[in-house]
Structures are given as structure tokens and as C-alpha cells.
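The instructor's notes for this session suggest beginning with a concrete chain rather than abstract definitions. Hand out the sequence below and ask the class to guess, before any prediction is shown, which regions might be ordered.
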Amino acid sequence: MLYPVKLRVHGPQKYKISGNSHHIPQFSQFAYLCPVIILSKNMDRIPTSFIAMLVLSLLLRVETASAQKDGNADTFSVFSYGLNVGFYFPDNHPANFYNGSPANDNKLDLVMRNYYYKEEITQALGYQLDSLNPYDLPSEMRYEPNVCIGFYARYPLHKLLGVFAQFNFVKLTAKDVFLLNLDLPQGYSLDPTYRQFPIWGIEKRVNIDLGISRYFPTKTRNVFFFEGGLNINNTRVVENKIQIRDKTYNLVNMYGSQAYIPNSQLQEYQVIQGGIGFGMFATGGIRLVFSDHLSMDPALTFYWKGINLGQYDGFRPQYNFFVRFTFRT
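After discussion, reveal the predicted structure:
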């Protein structure tokens, strides 16, 4: 048979369990609803009080361990803010926005099909360009990882749970090379039939992360934490250029429908490229507590988001490894 017995332990007292009086030592002040097992006739050699004490001890042990882990909860139940410094690793697919493809907003043809630009380039090379295939473009441009800095603020909801917002800024550069194919008569020269020149794009990217954070205490002052939520990002193109010899050419069409003519008073337009994108993120890290008011939090953020750059706006993974210096009020 199974009888529930409610025990509230305040000190060494005697409680009557299954008809027998037994002395129970002092425990912390907790209320438990303990199942006390009354053994059958075949097992009456084992005292029922021993079974009750075993169950009670296990429950007390679990409660004590939980209380120890949550001992730092009050330390983090305050408003906190901080500075993020890290390295941002973007997905390379949007980097092809800068490769000069005819399908992109910024085209190499803007330069190569302009009469004055083409004459200038031909003189610099010393050869005419191949009329059938004047150039070859990179198909897999890559970003260079760069330093990412930002700000962070967290408002506690209940002990280990809180809401937060952070703003991170990074300047990214995508680099590669393209080929200019030369029109060389066979046997006329031993020079290569192409020349290799740099092509690049620079952009500024802001990430706004809004989400929920949860701390996971340890037996020390340090705690693990997890964050997740919504990402809003804004990308702005700074430049998209090529360099041939000592001349730099802009692939962004600043003249609209006007053709470039040297030494002419052409109206230049401000061209804004990029836009708002959305995604999700998850962050895991550890908070290394130096004092009640300062900690250092190394962490890694995984993003699944879209970057608004022309046709390269699909959702792809991106990463940010950073250290957050957190201050608590």
C-alpha cells in the first residue's frame, strides 16, 4: 500500500509513520509531499521509516543542489549594458554583387563599352582587347572577415531570464581579380594573352539583434548563457571599383543615362544600393564574472539571415565571434 504523508521539517522532532515513532534529524525548511511505502508481509523485515527517510533525503539533495546553482541569480537580476568587440564572418554569396556581371546593378560593361574609357585602357595595356571575349569575371568573390563592434543592453524579467537588444557595426570588403583578354596575333608575342587586375566592393553593415537571454548558473560565479531572437540588418554599398594599371574606374553608374565624356560637366547622381534584411540568430557563451559590476563574456553568434543586395538576398548562415564587456548597475 502507498500512503502520502506531508512532512514539514523545522528541527529534530518525532513523527509517527506507519504506526511507529521515529526520530528525524534536522534539515532545511522545506515542505515535501513524500510517498511512504508500507511494505507487504513478505518484506516487513525492512523498516518503513528507512524507505521514508531515503526518499526525503533524495528530495532534499536535489533542492539543495538547485539552490546552490541559483545562488548567482540575484547578481544578474539587474539592468546591464556593455560593449561588443569581435570578428564577423559573412557568407560569401552576396560578395558576387561586386563582380561586375551584366546581371548585376554595377556592370563592368559600364567601363568597357564606353569609348573614352576603352581607349584609355587600350593605351595603358599596349594592346587591343579581344573583340569576342574582352574579359572574364570572377564567379566566387569572397569577403574578408573584419572587426565588428557594437553595444548591448539587457533588462531582466525574472532572475535568470531577460530581454535584450544589441547593435553591431562592421565594414566588409569583397576582393578578387578579373581578366582582360588581349587581341594578340599568333606568333607575334610571347606575352600572355590576358592581364589580371583587381576588382573590389566595400559595404557597411549594421546588425540589430532583439531577443531573449537566459543564464545557466554553475557552482562558481561564472554562468553560461543562451540568446536568441530576431535579426534586422541594414547594408549600404560604399564603392564598387576596378583598377587597371594606375587608373581606378567606378562600376557604379553615377551618370544615369549620360555617357562619360572626359572634361565635361556631367551631373553626378547619388546612388544608394543595399537595404533592409531580416533573419534569426542564436548565441551561446560564458559570462566570466570579475565583480558584481563587471564581467567579460566570450560568445559565438550564429545568424540565418538575408542580406539585401540585389539578387543575392537569400537566407544564408553567418557568424560573429565576439567578446562582450558587460557592466551592471
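Then share the key points. The chain has two domains: 2-71, 77-328. The helical segments are 48-69, 109-112, 115-125.
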